[in-house]
Predict the structure.
Amino acid sequence: MTDAIHEHGAKTFAQIINMGSSCFGTKDGGPPPAPSAVKNTLTGFVPREMTTAEVRLLGDHYAEAAWRAKEGGFDGVELCGNSGYMLNQFLSPLTNQRRDEYGGDFEKRLRFPLEVVEKIRAKAGSRFPISYRISGDDYMKGGVRQDGVKLIAQALEKAGVSLLNVTAGWHQAFLPLSSMDVPRGTYVYLAEGIKEVVKVPVITCHRINDPFLAEQILMNGQADMVGMGRPFLTDPEWPKKAAEGRFDEIRRCTACDQRCLDAVFGMKEITCTFNPAAARERQYALVPAAKPKKVMVVGGGPAGMEAARTLAQRGHKVTLFEKSTKLGGQLNLAAVPPGRGEFANAVKWLCSELYRVGVKVELGKEIDAEAIKKQKPDAVVVATGATPLRPKIPGIDSDNVVWAN
């Protein structure tokens, strides 16, 4: 895998993660190990407290994993010390109530993460890059706030960390962190605060899906790099398009979380609501049609627009028919409530793409069997959308019942 990445001139780090009490289960079915036996509010599990010997052994395992990553061709590693995972759990007084040298005051809670970095340095070498992914503020009552995180960042830098990747909060925090209703770039200030106290490069992330926002962050000196995850599920060519100035072609992540984060916590396969080919790139590869066809697509909602766009890219002659005077279908309704405006950007992008790939659009035209016979297409795609569920409740058809549309 690393060879394939390097063939394209890119660099790759391996993320090393131990979730501690945030694990949803263990191989033997027992409670997951953690710094202390404190119930995890994310999973509902009460972990078992690790022995001092197990803590030291875990540090050795981190170093072994980093060494294997180096041998496997990775250009560096990133330690996941964020989101309430194992390294984070050692740092917080909420989850570290140990009485040995790895718990107690701030310095003792910091001991394990520093030992991990030092052991990796000893095992993988002084020149092997180590990124540390750190929560810029836990946003947990009684947890570590940004003033404390700044001290942690300085200690990690001194221990040999090459890079700090600053995220926001724990999964258990009662605060939206990466959902659509979080304004773009909200948590950049966390990275900016860390950058003020360290000399190593700092990455910022969370709700950054626009190249102009990313560039503004760099120009303002708020961070040295910009990190993204979900935007590359929605459009894997995001960086390439931005570098080539093809900004309108970037399919931006809406932060709907439905097929990425929600899927993860539901133990399901990761895909993307707006990119059907996500994780299925070979299955859905755009192969030029052997014989171009005349195709009618009936319905101008997101499914019809995506179908028309894909067919045109394969070389077919496509006409899209929509009975209303506006494309986007019910996605336009989804964009109306407060904090849901990103859905409108998905409609905007699909409209732009239809124009770019040469789809003919006919608005205000309802299609029936006779209309299809007159057009004489080779194929018809019916994408007329879903109808709202009407539950069988007494009085559901009364005047005082208002439907979303």
Summary: Residues 52-71 form the longest helix (20 residues). The chain has a mean pLDDT of 95.
